[in-house]
Write a structure and sequence with these properties.
The chain is of the alpha/beta class. Helices cover 34% and strands 24% of the residues.
Length: 483
């Protein structure tokens, strides 16, 4: 990922971002950080970039021309208009979810203001997002820019050596992080909680969850209120567990934002994939939820995002077409692995890093070097940008015979297992079963419920899911897309 910071103090920025994890990631080529000195683009012989504001008032204002020319130098180099964030107290408060979302950008410009701000005309011309790191005023945007670079970089695959450390963070699922302990077992008479010494991972996960809930309730009642509302929704959705697995997993994985809830009518927004999920038992209330989606899309930070919607009732389709301008693109059954035990892998794939034998495959995460091969073989989603995004997120895995890629699988943004493809000449060798077994076991290791969606008429996939012991929802779900 490439950060381009427009600033009056480039040395300050670069020194602050040259150490520790960010510095190492830059040295290893995972990040690129450059500070562009706005003064280099002024036409004033004294390198002046500010002037008095029209209409009077205290202080000086940064002029439009040097800011625009500095920005344009980056845009011209990239070859397109990049996403540009202006750091300002007037912006939307920066959050962990925003960090995740911004980490998907290839190039990001951060514009640091100074003095009393920047001429509004250039902001209207170049800025895509206005963001603040809190409700207080600093002398400039450099410190907020460094804070954002740090938070965003941690979400870039490979920057953190421990993959899990970027996932189990404070604010995940509206909960603060649980308390943590290290050696010695007893310090100043205080002992480490015994459950953490037990080795029982199930009990440890449960303890950490309860501790996170209690800490959030005590320290951040505003976050706890959001958590509690979603938890109530999950209990309602679990009454039809198979049908609503996509929605309950969004909540469990900390990806859900509650858009509407009244009785059994619940609407969620997935903050990762930006897909809306809708379920109801009453048509009239379901229509109110669709109106809430429309309002949410218009007022949300990422406007115009009501492009995908998953309905769980057939009778809501005409109302989604009328209210949101969507049409049906796919009808699916939910396929859910309901057991807690991992699937056996004997004869399917190796996990010890040794070369595969007797036709077994090795399965490992695949990078962008396999993009062309994946695009050439996968046609269910005709969108190379989506495949690139999944690969960059580390969400795609390949089956290998020796050094040859013979099939792949992945997880979609909303958490479902999919994108399964085995190359024609290697079919009927249980490679598809090996790939899906791997993904199911991977999800179980992460404490998730593995699930996927099988499109109507895909009999091969239905047979595969049955052979692996997955259960199907009786009712269908309906994918709707913007016309």
């Amino acid at each position: 990922m490439n950060f381009h910071i427009l600033t009056l103090f480039p040395e300050m920025v670069m020194q602050g971002l040259s150490e520790s994890i960010i510095g190492n990631a830059t040295e290893n080529g995972l990040l690129s950080i450059e500070a562009i000195n706005i003064r280099d683009f002024t036409k004033n012989k004294h390198r002046k970039v500010d002037d008095y504001p029209y209409g009077g008032g205290a202080g000086m204002l940064m002029q439009a021309q040097p800011v625009y020319d500095a920005w344009k130098s980056v845009a011209d180099k990239i070859g397109r208009k990049p996403r540009t964030v202006y750091l300002t107290p007037q912006g939307q408060t920066f959050t962990q979810q925003m960090a995740k979302e911004l980490a998907t950008e290839q190039d990001l410009i951060l514009l640091c203001g100074h003095y009393e701000g920047i001429d509004e005309r250039v902001l209207e011309e170049i800025v895509t997002d206005y963001m603040s790191i809190g409700d207080y005023v600093l002398t400039g945007g450099e410190l907020p820019a460094m804070v954002m670079v740090d938070a965003i970089s941690r979400m870039v695959p490979g920057v953190l050596t421990n993959e899990e450390s970027g996932c189990t963070e404070s604010f995940e699922g509206n909960l603060l992080e649980y308390p943590q302990y290290s050696r010695p077992e007893v310090w100043q008479g205080k002992a480490v909680p015994s459950v953490l010494l037990s080795g029982n991972q199930k009990n440890i996960r449960e303890w950490r969850k309860e501790a996170a809930i209690e800490r959030t309730k005590e320290r951040r009642p505003d976050l706890y209120e959001k958590y509690e509302a979603l938890d109530r929704c999950r209990e309602i959705l679990k009454k039809q567990k198979l049908l609503h697995i996509d929605m309950t997993e969004l909540i469990a994985r900390g990806q859900a934002e509650l858009v509407y809830a009244k009785g059994a009518t619940i609407c969620l927004f997935d903050k990762v994939s930006r897909i809306y999920f809708h379920t109801t038992d009453v048509k009239e209330i379901g229509c109110l939820a669709l109106e809430a989606i429309k309002e949410h899309a218009l007022t949300h930070a990422y406007q115009g995002i009501a492009d995908l919607l998953v309905l769980h009732q057939d009778f809501m389709k005409p109302y989604a077409e009328e209210t949101l301008g969507l049409h049906e693109i796919m009808v699916c059954k939910q396929a859910v692995y309901t057991r807690k035990e991992k699937l056996p892998i004997t004869g399917l794939y190796r996990v010890d890093g040794k070369d595969a034998e007797d036709g077994m495959v090795m399965i490992r995460r695949i990078g962008k070097e396999y993009l062309d091969t994946v695009v050439a073989h996968y046609h269910t989603i005709d969108d190379p940008a989506y495949i690139i995004e999944r690969i960059e997120k580390g969400a795609m895995y390949g089956a290998f015979l020796g050094d040859e890629l013979v099939g792949f699988i992945g997880t979609h943004g909303e958490g479902s297992i999919g994108m399964l493809e085995v190359f024609q000449e290697y079919r009927r060798r249980r490679i598809g079963k090996a790939l899906e077994t791997y993904m199911i076991n991977l999800a179980l290791e992460a404490g998730q419920t593995p699930f996927g969606q099988v499109a109507e008429g895909n009999e091969k996939s239905f047979r595969l899911q049955e052979s692996l012991g997955l259960c199907f929802s009786k009712a269908d779900v309906y994918w709707m897309e913007k016309k």
